[in-house]
Amino acid sequence: MPDIVVTGSVFRRANSETPSPVTVLTTEHLQNAGITTISDAVRSISADSSGSVPTSFTAGFGQGSSGVSLRGLSVNSTLVLIDGLRTANYPLADDGQRGFVDLNSIPQSIVDRVEVLKDGASSNYGADAIGGVVNIILKKQIVGVEATAEAGTSSRFDGGNRRIALSVGHGDLDRDGYNAYLNFEYQSDEAIYANQRGFPYNTNDLTSIGGFNNNPGANGPGATTSAVVRPATYGTPGNILSGVADPTQPYRVLNPAGCGTGTIAHVNAPSATTAGGAYCEQNTAGQYLTDQPSQRRLGATAHITARVGSDAEAYATATYYESKVDSTNTPQSVRSANPINTQTIALPALLSNGTLNPNNPYAATGQSALLYYTFGDIPGGSTTYSHVVRGSAGIHGTFGTGWTYSADATAAHSWLDLTQRGYLNIAALTDAINTGSYNFVNPGLNSNAIRAALSPNVGIRATSDLDQLQGVVTKELFQLPGGAVQLGVGGAFRYEAVNDPNANPDLTTINLNQYSAKGHHTVESAYFELNAPILTKLEVNVSGRYEHYSEGYNNFSPKVGAKFTPFRQLAIRGTYSKGFRAPSFAEGAQGSVIGFTTTAPPQSVIDEHGNNAYVQRYSIGFNTVSNPNIKPEKSESFTAGAVFQPTPWLSVTADYYNIRKTGVITGGPNANDAINAYYAGTPIPAGYKVIQDAPDPDLPGATRRVIEVDSPFVNAASLKTSGIDLAATANFKFNNGVRFTSQVEVTDIFKFDFSPGDGTTLHYVGTQAPYILSSGAGTPKWRGNWQNTVEAGPVTVSATVYYVDGYKSVAEDQNGAGATTCDDALYSPDFCTTKSFVDVDLVGSFKVNEQFTFYANVLNVGDRKPPLNPANYAGINYNPTWTQQGIVGRFYKIGARVKF
After folding, report:
1. Among 217, 221, 234, which residue's Cα sits nearest to residue 346?
2. Is 149 helix (H, G, I), strand (E, B) or coil?
3. Which of 294-298, 421-425, 815-819 shows the lowest per-residue confidence on average (mean pLDDT)?
4. By 3-state DSSP, what share of the chain in percent is helix, strand and coil, each rounded to 5?
């Protein structure tokens, strides 16, 4: 093979086995796996762990995107490069805090290979390369015409997929001294709705199998599309948000016809703690949510490579890429705690014109009506429409004796239009209630104009920029017994900026999160790398990088690696490095973020309220604001491994990793202490603020639950993680021309311990933690994939097996230290364990001739269903991060590749 630059080094070399462990996904490997996107390619790697962002999680802050989290260190600690160069981050940060590159914004059909460096690499690339580096290498040249067309559908005839790609190139780099090509690609995936999948993935009522019923209105009056009311008075005269229920009076369904279509009627007799009454239950999740959003991806790339004289090669690339993701959401409730508390909203007896309120059945007696209602006639959902324009150019070559150089420039601009539908405008809602313009008795009679006024679309445009210049010079210094000592030195300058405005700055929209980030900085870098083949059997590599940020902080990241080859069949390797992650603009510049997770009050408060609906599991907000005194996170890591090749047809690698991260930026490390102090009646920790919810309508004098905790970002946390990567490749060639290739990759996580800064240590491996960080995805101990391919003449058949280990549905970061047993399960002790998942994909192709190849894929051949996981909040009773293919089900694709 020609000399190439292996990810993690500035030197060109023929041997890709470096002191650092690198996984290479070739075009052939991806085709045999039936993988058609960079997102699926990178997230299939066994080292991708907790914190990984799936496109299917449309309720997240970074909705519409896909991100990789090597070693579970979150997406902001994995650096994604294109041809060794940075690119702009997704304009929306994960959880409003963690910046990352959206894998959906990278073209796939012109990818030559994907190199994944599973080792710290801040000494080469600077900030964020703590967990590793994903380097997408695009094709240097395309000659002639290459085209692909593909279509597919699930066995249930939904979730249809279409993909086309066309590349046209001219010139041969070796013969003509240049090559130029144009590429176009398009892919669309149709939505899959929860009501298109069977039980238990289409409902939050699991009582038939011994679980809970978490449907709205199942355990008492809830917000459903059939309005429920109760007699009340106003705590503040004229204020419709100050309703106080009369606990002696029963609930009633507002529509005289009773609970409407799609709802279930309930009538409860009075008890010691409630007056009972009639109300409705509704499976809103099953009726409205999507398991797979619709997505359309479209992009074009122009690339040229040319010889410059006899000793240099120059290139230029320009890319435009867009991704549009549409998803639905459950309709909005009239009752919310974010950002204005409408939990005690009540219909007045008299309208603003002085007449009796027709929506209030108690109007004649002068009472207001506490309201429970979901606006089923106003569809909810969101559209993320992201665009990336990226250009790069550079030159590399040789001069003198043993000198090489390279210089590169890149600029990327990303902009995203986020449109959110179905959210309620508080002023319009207040007006509709006071004037009676909205019909709560029979919503079907409302006009489109009334609905549009009540719920105007809310949109923002967020942007992200990156501009970078870098240059490297290398020189062969002198000879050692193992070869030439190489020294490389370089420098870089980059500018980064983000503007993610608050979609709800004036608090005018109910239940719409307030998060924002804004800032820009420059970074100057200087770095070196020394490679010394001390002996023919011993290679040592030393590198370091110094970076200065315009915010005022500096960092030096060193790394040393060695590879020892005692004999040809065995190589022993290891590295030691230090790295860092720079604070995001939300953490250190200008921004804030509020995240929500499910919780319940302590048992004493639950007992005080008689275990009624008020104290069932609910959403609590953790609001965190930027801190200009924040410092970078630091890391220290080492790897130790071996490459064993006893025969030419078999190669086995094993690499141990150990990473320690300190000064981890976290929001509210003492948030649980603040909550506990509130309930215990003791002082709240300094710097924290606990916000109470509205009173319990049934027991207004009882202890109120916590609805929000406010705190700043701080460098308070630390973590340690370790594990081992195992990989093997076997190639067999038989006399009849048949070839068999088997590749397996497995990651076993030994430890993932997190100290949030409150004196406790949380143990994540084998649990659904980190629950808040990872969208409830958790940290399975084992992940792996195994691909087996048979080539016989024109026929190629490949089967790829994916495995993810089971785990307990407990999470210490959710419930506080000690949540390690099934008694502390996030959902129920009876549903504590989420089982392992195995998925098999089958791909077959037939090469008609050198120009035409036809193929057919069957993904999830066994139509395996995802294991039950009621605790996950990103999917309905399943975990979309690891088992999305299970909810899609068996999927068929056919396609053709043409080349001439």
Report:
1. 234
2. strand
3. 815-819
4. 10, 50, 40
What would the pLDDT profile of 480-518 be if each residue is shown by its tens digit? 999 999 999 999 999 999 999 999 888 899 988 778 889
Q: Could you tell me the sign of the dihedral formed by the alpha carbons of 603, 606, 611, 617, in that order?
A: negative
pLDDT for res 694: 82
Distance of CA 155 to the CA centre of its chain: 27
Q: What is the 3 state secondary structure string of 280-332?
A: EEECHHHHHCEEECEEEEEEEEEEEEEEECCCEEEEEEEEEEEEEEEEEECCC
Tell me the whole-structure pTM to 2 decimals. 0.91
Opening angle at CA 686, ends 684 and 691, nearest 5: 50
Separation CA 102–CA 66 (nearest Å): 5
Output the CA–CA distances (angstroms, integers) from residue 86 to 389, 394, 463, 501, in the order listed.
Answer: 13, 14, 16, 24
Within 10 Å of residue 174's Cβ, how many Cβ atoms?
8
- Could you report the per-residue pLDDT of 566-591, keeping only the tens digit for each? 998 999 999 999 999 999 998 887 87
Structural contact between residues 874 and 833, judged by C-beta atoms closer than 8 angstroms: no
d(CA 844, CA 857): 6
Residue 557 vs residues 346, 485, 581, 584, 658: alpha-carbon distances, Å: 60, 22, 11, 19, 17
The SS3 call for residue 586 is: helix
- Pick the closest to residue 708 from 597, 822, 873, 792 (CA basis): 597
pLDDT of residue 1: 47
Q: Provide the residue type at 857 as one letter.
A: N
Rg (CA), the chain: 29
pLDDT of residue 324: 97
Residue 13: is its pLDDT beyond 70?
no
CA distance 859 to 862: 9
Question: Mean pLDDT, the chain, as a whole number?
Answer: 92
pLDDT, tens digit, for every residue of 412-458?
A: 999 999 999 999 999 999 999 999 999 999 999 999 999 999 999 99
Q: How many CB atoms lie within 10 A of CB 414?
A: 24
Both tokens of 532, joined, read: 């010394």
Determine the residue type at 722.
Answer: S
| Amino acid identity, position 217 | G
Query: Angle 657-882-823 (CA atoms, 0-180°, nearest 5)?
Result: 90
Q: Name the residue among 702, 888, 594 with its Cα closest to residue 245.
A: 702
From the CB of residue 297, how many other CB atoms can be counted at a distance below 10 Å? 23
| SS3 state at 568 | coil
- Find the length of the chain: 900
For 361-369, the CB contacts below 8 A with 24+ separation are 361/229, 361/252, 361/254, 362/229, 362/231, 367/231, 367/232, 367/233, 367/246, 368/231, 368/232, 368/233, 368/234, 368/240, 368/243, 369/229, 369/230, 369/231, 369/232, 369/254
Long-range contacts of 511-514 (CB under 8 A, 24+ apart): 511/332, 511/333, 511/336, 511/338, 511/423, 511/424, 512/338, 512/339, 512/420, 512/423, 512/458, 513/61, 513/96, 513/338, 513/594, 513/596, 514/339, 514/592, 514/594
